Prior knowledge:
The chain is mainly β. It has a single domain, classed as Sandwich (Jelly Rolls). A hairpin with a 2-residue loop joins strand 3 and strand 4. The chain starts with 5 loop residues before the first strand and ends with a helix. The relative contact order is 0.35.
Amino acid sequence: MKEGTVVWPHTGPTNNRLRIHLGLKVPPDWQNVNITVAGETRHWHEGKVLTFDDSFEHGVEHHGEHYRIILIMDVWHPEMTKNEKLTVSAI
Length: 91
């Protein structure tokens, strides 16, 4: 994500997954790069994982001076049953 980018608040399409962000390249001024999920603001750190349910409203503000790179992965929500996982269609 390039510096100056703002991703307006939005929601993911389903609550059957959790979204994982792994900080690969986080600006030295990381305090100026944040994600707010359901009213709670967090920051990325290199080599650290940030996990959230993207069915809650979330948005990103990047007011840092350098770009940010994260790896995004999705995993099943831990409360889903095996049967639910087998019956969910692809997103």
